[in-house]
């Protein structure tokens, strides 16, 4: 059970704070809800206490986990590239990983898209997924590592400096 003011992560939304726990009657049945305010966009969510873990609500990852995620972003040995895989299939796979709520899945999407961008210009949809993954990863890591989100974003971007150099324009 989460407590008021506790930081939590809601899949595909990011880090939020439990503002209160309230009881409401819905359809003649009384239920308790976490009222969670997502910090990045100020959206308020009502999450049933009974189903909180089923929908993926979880605490912010630990310092050790945050450090491990950061290290995993450096490791490129699991990058398979996008050969033979069309954009629709990758988009579905990446969207599912972003919705999973698992920070390592989200970091995987971030790393893959950065590395795919090394070989080709990312499409609008890919850039949007990259931005979403970047925000989800850096926000949680900023709380986990007790750092500013912009500083974490700079550190993550620096890991991929070799792949995000401006592409030379052809004359």
Tell me the number of helical segments per DSSP (H or I, 4 or more residues long): 5
| Distance from first to last alpha carbon | 61 Å
Radius of gyration: 18 Å
Kindly estimate the percentage of residues that lie in beta strands according to DSSP: 15-25%
CATH class of the largest domain: Mainly Alpha
The fold-level CATH name of the largest domain is Methane Monooxygenase Hydroxylase, Chain G, domain 1
- Output the structural class: alpha+beta
Mean pLDDT: 89
Model regions low in confidence, pLDDT < 50 over at least 5 residues: none
Q: Going across the major beta sheet, what is the strand order?
A: 4-3-2-1-5
Total domains = 2
The number of distinct β-strands equals 5
Work out the helicity level: 40-55%
CATH architecture of the largest domain: Up-down Bundle
Gross morphology is globular
At the fourth CATH level, what is the homologous superfamily of the largest domain? Answer: CarD-like, C-terminal domain
Sketch the topology as an H/E string, one letter per element: EEEEEHHHHH
Largest sheet descriptor: 5 strands, antiparallel
Which key phrases capture this entry?
single chain, 171 residues, alpha+beta, Thrombin, subunit H, 2 domains, 5 helices, 44% helix, 20% strand
């Amino acid at each position: 059970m989460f407590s008021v003011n506790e930081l939590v992560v809601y899949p595909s939304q990011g880090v939020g704070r439990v503002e209160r726990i309230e009881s409401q009657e819905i359809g003649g049945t009384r239920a308790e809800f976490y009222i969670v305010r997502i910090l990045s966009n100020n959206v308020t969510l009502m999450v049933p206490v009974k189903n909180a873990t089923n929908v993926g609500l979880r605490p912010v990852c630990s310092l050790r986990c945050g450090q491990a995620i950061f290290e995993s972003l450096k490791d490129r040995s699991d990058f398979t590239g996008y050969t033979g895989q069309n954009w629709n299939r990758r988009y579905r796979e990446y969207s599912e990983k972003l919705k999973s709520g698992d920070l390592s899945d989200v970091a995987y999407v971030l790393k893959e898209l950065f590395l795919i961008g090394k070989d080709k210009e990312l499409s609008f949809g890919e850039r949007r997924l990259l931005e979403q993954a970047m925000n989800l990863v850096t926000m949680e890591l900023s709380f986990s590592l007790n750092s500013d989100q912009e500083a974490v974003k700079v550190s993550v971007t620096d890991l991929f400096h070799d792949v995000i150099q401006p592409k030379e324009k052809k004359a």
